[in-house]
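User
Please review the sequence:
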Amino acid sequence: AERGKDIDFGFLGNRAGYDINQMLIQYSNDSTHARAALVGIMNTLLVAFLGCITATIIGVTAGILRLSKNWIIARLMSVYVEGFRNIPLLLWILIIFAVVTESTPQPRDFRGEDAEASMILFDSVAVTNRGIYIPSPEWGPNSGLLIGVFLISIVGIFVYRAMARRKQEATGAQSPVFLVGLALFFIPTLIAFFILGRPVTLNYPELGGFNFTGGTQVRNSLIALWVALSLYTGAFIAEIVRAGILAVDKGQTEASSALGMRPNRTMNLVVLPQALRVIIPPLISQYLNLTKNSSLAIAVGYMDARATLGGITISQTGRELEGMLLLGIFYLIV
């Protein structure tokens, strides 16, 4: 108030006037600052969602392998964990971004009969120094019905798994859960796909001019941020998983071995379920850390909430208090 400023969020309805290179929803520089903030928030949630999934897979795998009786595998996992945990995340983001950018061909390398580079996966994917171009779906009039059939198939898989588990507990007989699950997933969806007249088609990327057109571009900034966050957070999750496994009494493993269970079955059915009570609380903290660490995306030009709402919007409107307040509320909610 002493400086003649008051708290006003009216700037969110003004024209943004800047472009965003990676977006999940429709946006142009004529959109409002509120729309730009929403695009940035969705970009943050995207990399956080992808990072949490891959970091969990990497962390669980590395945590189990670090306890392996194979000396080489255990030492390799130790090098990975200690290496990523003790080097700053920002440095990993920059290193991976540089490697991805410098080791991939330029779009012009795909041109001509004697091209230096070529598309992969039946000429549907192009890996360039500007990003990866992949086919994008185009939704037709009956695509909603197809999605409905797909969701019903997913529900059917879970219902069948529950029925098979109850049957095994009651009679001891095992059911072909995997094969039946594949059938429930593919058969109804494929039948609906052809009956509805192929409502979903793919738009493939094609080289036109100096760049690829069509499809969806996954920029190197997103790839570098995703990989760095996954590997970095996965190293911490690996230690959490290792500690959780060691917290389970060794008598459990010895008892399962006495019953003739194989080591992998012992880990899946005996050890890990008991270790979850130790693993889950710190695991959730790592998910939160990963989401907050995604604010380093601005270092490689990925337009997340920090870059849009907490960056360009603030510099254009001069509403730093309101912008940082909204940004803080977003991270607090997440």
